[in-house]
Queue: 2 jobs
Job 1
Amino acid sequence: MKLFGSSGIRGVVDKEFLQLTFEIGLAVGNSCHSVIIGCDTRTSSDAMRYAFLSGLLSAGATASYAGVVPTPTLAYATRHFEAGAMITASHNPPQYNGIKLTNPDGSAFDAAQREQVEEMVSAKSSQTAHWKEFGKCEDHLGAIEEHIERIQADFPTRSKLKVVVDCGCGATSAVTPRLLTKLGCDVVPLNCQPGGHFPRGLETIPENLGDLAKIVKSEGADLGIAHDGDGDRIAVIDEKGGFVASDKLMVLFARQLGATKVVTTVDASMLIDELGFEVVRTRVGDAFVSDELRHSAPGNIEESFGGESSGCFIFPSVSLCPDAIYAAAKIVEIASEHRISTLADQIPSYPVLRGGVPGDKAVMEEVERRLKREAESGGRLETVDGLRLSISDGWLLIRPSGTEPKIRITAEATSEQRAEELYNLGLRTIKECLIRRERATT
């Protein structure tokens, strides 16, 4: 049984999913004795919370409830507990919900921890405690205040920027506007009333942020900031109303922090490699980025930074959880010194093409054989996550989707023509392998 995706467990909430949530709580309670729980603003979050909590307490664990909080806020509070459980489906539509499980340092459950939970749920091997030993739940007050105070400590200089903040009616609604106001900003709130019926798509992509861009321009604001449903992602609109690509944000944050090492995913832009950072690439998903930071940078954590192209950024000195609230304070600090549009324009950008083909991941072996032949003429083939063919002027990534029967293709190069050539190479290779496999099985 595979429960975990690249960022926790998610599904459409129904009877079966609620029953599964109880089993997950029971499994977690068998290995962790103290767990803090938080929720986003979805209509199903209370039901999910009680289902998870019932399993957890019946295993004999104790629980604390932090209330409606962003994921990074819960992760910061988890330092006082053995584990944290965030009830959220992040940027998914409102009918979805899920669970993110975190360690005391804010990192997501690693591969061994995820496998243990999956095995216990699949085998139904979790034990309930004797009725006299059932756990109890109490409220954990002040998680938001603690998180805001921790972030404030890193930003002693007050800013006088005008900032439009779009929280999508998600869990950051009561946090980011409040933090930025404390930092001295004139905050213009947009979609900052918590609710489970979201007024826009929660994914932090340009298509969902048209209203934010318009208001930044009409208000003459210095900056626009948007979050997804649980506050682990950020998007930035510059003072001209332009969307700042997440790969460029990664560079801006790393430079502002003075980081020498950047941990990112295989689908992040090659511009990061070209700007002088030591770059380590992981599988797609913030959990893999935090896991790499956890194991490879314990001695120089202050010089390390992590992020991915989805808008998740990890500031290891605070937590190994993606923290879009801290990122909001950091981009305000940067914008107080320079215009964001000017800084973004100074960072190179390369054409990127993304797409996919319906297909079974079983064809990946044949695809790998063909790309190995391509690599022999002057490229490098990596298998960290799918297949990444790197050449002197670009790269091609072919990887199976983790959520649907589809093979994804991403190509980036120094010119549009070269990006198209690489993308078409990937498309042609996959289609030929699919046809060959279909003929072999008929």
Note: The two ends are 29 Å apart (CA to CA).
Job 2
Amino acid sequence: MLELRSDFVSQVRRILVVGLFFIVPAVVAAQAPAAPLKVAIVGLEHGHVEGFLKSLPQHHDIELVGIADADPALFAKYQKKFDLPETLFFKSMANMIEVRHPQAILVYTSVGEHRHAIEIAAQYGVSVMVEKPLTISLDDALAIRRAARHYNIHVLVNYETTWYSSNRAAYEELAHGSLGPVRKVVVHDGHQGPKEIGVPPEFLSWLTDPAQNGAGALYDFGCYGVDLMTWMMHGEAPLTVTAVVNQDKPQIYPHVDDDATIVLAYPRAQAVIQASWNWPFGRKDMEVYGATGYAITIDATRLRIRHEHDNDERLVTAPPLTSPENDSLTYLAAVLSGRVQDKADLSALDTNVVVTQILDAARESARTGRTVRLSKLGND
């Protein structure tokens, strides 16, 4: 009887040991940090690339593996400032992808070059994040969407205001019914002007070229409000678009507008988007008015809220955004890993195809002095 018990105990021990042999590596693998997302930069002529390079040391989940730009002087500029290794630099985007095998491309070219960069990346099956706006024409936007679908890649658009907790709080107020149905949204975006605030010369040169930027302030800052309104309308396009532009500083910006107002008309709502290179101070704020309340953002974190039956408005600080929806790089990594679905949000391609349709119509309205009625987009 004692021998039987001893054999039984021995068998149990062997089973436990074998089980642990398989369990321990699985636990260790589950606890091991994920490998960094390998990204590459395409283009150095967009001033926002400096913000990326500054933030990179804090992003241990991101590894920069290559930089492609046809101008060696631009690479030398950033190489010196950020102590970048010479081996990162390539003149050819295609060559850089073939050698470095990035998992995502960050595009910092002119807006007019976005389509070209995305189509090259798509052919290699590499996903892309571009700086706002998506592109300069509806034709380009539809071509980008076709390429993304054909090659099964993600295309995301990065707006600074996407990562404002105040905008998220205003959206939640509307989504939860606290403001009633949306009736009017007013968005203000811009600054004193790109030359006035001292953007780098390579940035200024294409910002003020309609062939590379689409327009002036109309595209540069109008895109923020159009993106926010399209998000709040869950991707619905307006019925009509009306735009008025001014050229208040032709001696500085002879080829593009420097002030723009865009009016979007929906069946039961309006949006008024004021974009300017003529504000006395930089601003990015929004007013959301519903049938029973309002939410007015002040800056990236604060907003004023008043609901039906409130005697007065309240000044509140929005709760911080949580990872992975708190910054562009973390969000990109989450989308590519499948932790976040590429949904109809501020960064999404479908949202930004509608944004481009609206901006294209606004440019046409400003050119002709007429309201433009939008056609329903196909799903090609």
Note: The CA atoms of residues 172 and 361 lie 29 Å apart.
